[in-house]
Amino acid sequence: MKKLILIIRWIVGLLFIFSGLIKANDTLGLSYKMQEFFEAWGMQSFDNFTFALSFLMNLFEIVLGVAMIVGFCMELFAWLILLLTIFFAFLTGYAALSGKFRTCGCFGDCLPLSPVQSFMKDIALIILILIIFSYRKKIQPLFKNKNISITIIVVGILIGIGFQAYTLKHLPVLDCLPYKKGNHLLEEMKVPPGAIPDSTVVTFKYKKNGQVVEFDAEHFPADFDSTYEYVDRYDKIIRKGNAEPPIADFALQTLEGADTTQEILQQQSKYILVLAKDFDDWNMQKADFDNVLKAAAGKSLKVFVASPAAEGAQKLFPQDVTLLRLDAVVEKTAARCNPTYFLMQGDHILDKKSYADVESLIKEIEH
């Protein structure tokens, strides 16, 4: 039985470490997923805390995983990991039953699981953890020297903090978003082959005796006559499909409101596209941006700056920089750092860099 418990501990421990690290690769992505849950519950006031919660959650998962493997303070950590997994099962169960979420974010964007898959995973985990929990008082630590176990856990904490700090500054190490380097944006904006569209039926709204009634073309009321007053018609979804492109809402607009997406993405020459959440700290970024602008001018490359905060930012940029409007949700999905630089050729993302890696971008431009 000891060998079985050891194997289960390693399985659970490695799974938690993997889960913590894969989400630590994109801490902001997890915080956005938390915001979805809070919004579904009408708790938008918690949105300001999602980043801190995401950072700590990733760290906590790594620590729990390491503790399971080294067998440190099992009476405490067995309780913690059981309660956390039950909480996860509640979230994934809610997501599965409510139908409000496409994925739960359990393994980030790199390994998207449906709510049902996530819930089944959590149930399997609970079963394994209950076995560990039942034998928690009999589990011996992997190392007799307590200080070794503490040191390993501390190292796990430092790795979790350091890795998240790095990815927040330099972009995720593993980019699993449709805006990653090498992708063609126009291709990502197409519906995948073999996708199933929504099944809809034309539904009519009429008013009869002060009451609004709805029906489709095959179910007209038997007494339908001129006493029915037309109100509206719409397409009612009777079966949800999966015909959604990876990128559904990417649009670049001029400050006057003209859509210039196709014009920019279909040009053949190279150019620089800068995505910025806002310009609150632009004074700190200006020197790097000016260096990129200089390198781009040396190669006759156009520079576009797209942001949800584009209005009123004209004074920050010279006339040879084109300022564009971009939806806030698109910006935070495509650019995990503020700002993020894209070296483009048409719709092809040749390179993608954080503000912290401008020097390597300049070398790529000048190459």
Task: Give a quick set of tags describing it.
single chain, 367 residues, alpha/beta, Glutaredoxin, three-stranded antiparallel β-sheet, 11 helices, 8 strands, flat
Describe the structure.
By secondary structure, the chain is α/β, with parallel strands linked by helices. The chain has three domains: 2-170, no CATH class; 199-239, no CATH class; 261-366, Glutaredoxin (3-Layer(aba) Sandwich), CATH 3.40.30.10. Helices cover 46% and strands 16% of the residues. It has eleven helices and eight strands. The chain has helices at 2-24, 27-40, 50-70, 74-98, 115-134, 146-170, 185-188, 261-265, 282-298, 328-334, 358-366; strands spanning 199-208, 211-216, 229-239, 270-275, 302-307, 321-325, 340-345, 348-354. Strands 6-5-4-7-8 form a five-stranded mixed β-sheet, with helices on both faces. Strand 4 (270-275), helix 9 and strand 5 (302-307) form a beta-alpha-beta unit. Helix 3 (50-70) packs antiparallel against helix 6 (146-170) and helix 9 packs parallel to helix 11 (358-366). The termini are far apart. The mean pLDDT is 89.
